[in-house]
Design a protein that fits this description.
Strand content: 15-25%
Shape: globular
Helix content: 25-40%
Number of strands: 18
Largest sheet: 5 strands, parallel
CATH topology of the largest domain: FAD/NAD(P)-binding domain
Radius of gyration: 23 Å
Distance between the termini: 54 Å
Amino acid sequence: MSPKSAAIPRQPMREQPPAERIHNFDEVPLGYTEEAALAEASRCLGCKKPKCIEGCPVAVDIPGFIALVKEGKFAEAARKIKETNVLPAVCGRVCPQETQCEAVCVLGKKSAPVAVGRLERFVADWERERGLVERAHTAPPTGKRVAMVGSGPAGLTCAADLAKLGHDVTIFEALHDMGGVLVYGIPEFRLPKKILREEIETLRDMGVKLETSAVIGKLATIEELMTEESFDAVFIGTGAGLPHFMGVPGENLLGVYSANEFLTRSNLMRAYEFGSGADTPIARGKRVMVIGGGNVAMDSARTALRLGADRVILAYRRSRDEMPARAEQIHHAEEEGIEFHLLTAPIEFRGDERGWVSSAIMQKMELGEPDDSGRRRPVPMEGSEYEEPIDVAIIAIGAGANPLISSTTPDLQVNRRGYIVTDPESGATSLPGVYAGGDIVTGSATVIEAMGAGRKAAAAIHEYLSARGAKACDTC
């Protein structure tokens, strides 16, 4: 290990102070300065056998782009990332680098790993803010048409790769804005929508057609896309957007939300735009309880606080060590005053005479033996019940597969939980020419893992289309 690299500390990132940010939806981390980026990049050892690339689901050339940062070639560094990642500004903000590329950084053995995500964000922002984004090179048209069902990270990545290869790609998005979970699920303070839209716009520049408010399964079935609409292949990337509930009494009371609905109302119905005139129908509680311990729970709790809550409780049935949320998310939530009630879970919601939730009956837990997830199983403690006054509850315990596609595609094989069964290497489904990837296959996972699935499927779709031979292109 280079003594010089080990001696330079990992560069911190500027942030909005907690007392200020709880009153706005502006981004919390403010990014690196050029000086901080150069200092952080100088820590990279430039390993001959870089494990960080193996830790990246889309195989970004991490030492390659960091070497360009060291030279001050920031736009070139962004373009190096884009060779395999069409959404660098997004990934630099929301990907869990600490469990992927940074987790295997050699420097991390004796000091802090290189801040790959922060450098990725820096170069992507630097290129975009200076108007230096270049249109990606695309191959001559092949005459083949591919439909993307869903505009989340898997669909966007698959679309970009196929467009580069010369295929005619159309993305069908059920909602009125592109981005899937990136736009409806992640709050403005973690991923500004302007940045997401500008990265998606690069796909339009590549010739990808973007159709919103297009509910596949209603507007057209998968079969109809391939017959009546003459698409040669279809990729399904609809995510896991069907919310899970707890099955406890009182969940049907007014003021009890799924996190999916709560965040969608805030993000897509513009509750975050203070003073915009958007009359978003969302309950702005003063005493809010969020149930769960993942990133979605943190996003919900921090959003509720910004919408005017006086007190936000995050109830999690395990301990802090078992929380699946990113360490940064937990840290920011604690800084902002979110109350963590650990080893507790609601067993009932009670309401007032109007049918609105007014309290939660809580039960304390203790940890037993590990379950299938590898985490210790929470065991209820008898006689530990107590009542917590609340006026809004948000259930953030996970989501499953929406059955719309599978119910309208009879021969599409799904597993017992409703997720689409695919070949793990190609994303091929039980139907010829139909591929799938992301959360609709794996269940809720990370943005970058979904992107990796999109890349694998794009390579397989290209091989499938190439094997079928060229077709005349009417617009060539």
